[in-house]
């Protein structure tokens, strides 16, 4: 994997424009593969965000906002490695948030929500989503910072 | 529910399994396109029961009057011959009636609200029928520890102008029986379903103009289908509304071919409804096809449900039953908490949602058009979680003994209760004259 995919603008413009300040995307460009990774993660995050918010009837706008926002966030990363890590972190975040939205879907629809949530079954739902979320989070951490365990051992002095 | 020899336990609680635990793992990304035709009523038998005319009246019969001639309903039943009429006057009858060897008998109250069979929370069934073509009409049953009106293993049955309330399991109930009809009846306050037709294929049965409220489930039909129609009825304030379902604990799974038509299904998310076995798994759903196939759900009004208005989900018992070839057409669905139309994953394909007036769907564009997902694991997840909560004993529920009593003044009495008895249902070569 290329560690550095950022190139300076070929035109070599030195003056910062207002647009460059608002949209630092123009500070650099990525190669095709990194751009494809950005697009793929943007689409995945958009779809996942739309899926977990569909109970609230906002699937399409959430998809658009999440996809564009994620694309912007990822494209501003300086390296392909950072792009990949941020994309995985985004997916992990959405998966971690999903059980809250799951519960919220029922909470807003019933008269006495506390009778339906806070049960062991709800805890299972949280655990399932969080266990799944840990996977992309760990992979993202590995991509961004290298092997995890040596750092953990070093931190605790082993 | 399976009657078990010996201890005669009739609860399904220990044998029910979740709706679709495999939904999560089975929910692969698929491309689906809702096309025309094919789904629904493609089973061995058609889904709907055609109209077959009014039952014919018996010409040769005797009337046995209670309490004028007999002190108890059971005494009159024991004295009756086939085709006779047991006519019960107003009063509270603290007994459990069995009809085991007198076919074509009619037991009728003279006043629906004033002829009351009372189980006093001690007796099991108000009327238990194992004889063919027995008709129960125009009376109320309450406070029984099992069922109100129960036919099992019969050919020919009818329940008309019946009120069943605050009985522990079922209200108006036919098991392993064919050629039947429930009509103009009411059921509330049961820990299973208000109306139940189970283990029959083909059923040759009709449920119409009934009303079910404050039950775990309004209508439940386990492995029941083929010439079976549920229509023009009201299902409201139960935990779940209309729930055809597949279970291995009854014969002939999966459930196949019921027609659900022209019903009003609303606000089936009552957490105070009594429940013991199944209700909370279907909580907040209007019409819930749980592991069924070849069903036809048309022209119903379904509104105000906490989860899903109309939904098809997989069912797991000893086997996994994926919904397939069900057709949902022309329904008006609104006010659902999660989605008006929903299809869980895994599903076996052929489920069609056509021309429904609905505001939301899971997966997207279920009601027509291109969709990334054929079914949505989220839908199955909802019902699994509720089932887990039920199994863990943590689901909300009310008490069947104290559930709201029926609105008696709204219940239509039988016209002319003194008229001659009629056959259960009209069929070729039937018992009518």
Would you mind describing this structure in some detail?
The complex is a heterodimer of chains A (158) and B (433). Chain A has 158 residues and is mostly helical. In chain A, 66% of the residues lie in helices and 0% in strands. Chain A contains six helices and no strands. Chain A is flat and about 55 Å long. With 433 residues, chain B is mainly β. The two termini of chain B are 35 Å apart.
Beta content of chain B comes to 25-35%
Largest sheet of chain B: 21 strands, parallel
Main sheet overview of chain A? none
Please tally the β strands of chain B and state the result: 36
Structural class of chain A: mainly alpha
The count of β-strands of chain A is 0
Proportion of residues in helical segments of chain A: 55-70%
What is the count of DSSP helices of chain A, taking H or I runs of 4+ residues? 6
N to C succession of SSEs of chain A: HHHHHH
Question: In terms of topology, how is this protein built?
Answer:
The complex is a heterodimer of chains A (158) and B (433).
Chain A: H1 18-22, H2 32-52, H3 59-75, H4 80-107, H5 120-145, H6 148-155
Helix pairs in contact in A: 2-3, 2-4, 3-4, 4-5
Chain B: H1 23-26, E1 32-33, E2 63-66, H2 73-79, E3 85-88, E4 91-93, E5 97-99, E6 106-109, E7 115-118, E8 127-129, E9 134-142, E10 149-152, E11 155-165, E12 172-175, E13 178-183, E14 186-188, E15 193-198, E16 205-208, E17 211-213, E18 217-222, E19 228-231, E20 234-236, E21 240-245, E22 259-261, E23 264-266, E24 285-290, E25 296-298, E26 301-303, E27 308-313, E28 315-316, E29 320-321, E30 327-329, E31 332-334, E32 339-343, E33 352-354, E34 357-358, E35 361-362, E36 370-371, H3 377-391
Parallel strand pairs in B: 2-3, 3-6, 4-7, 5-8, 6-9, 7-9, 8-10, 9-11, 10-12, 11-13, 11-14, 12-15, 13-16, 14-17, 15-18, 16-19, 17-20, 18-21, 19-22, 20-23, 21-24, 22-25, 23-26, 24-27, 25-30, 26-31, 27-32, 30-33, 31-34, 32-35
Antiparallel strand pairs in B: 1-36, 28-29
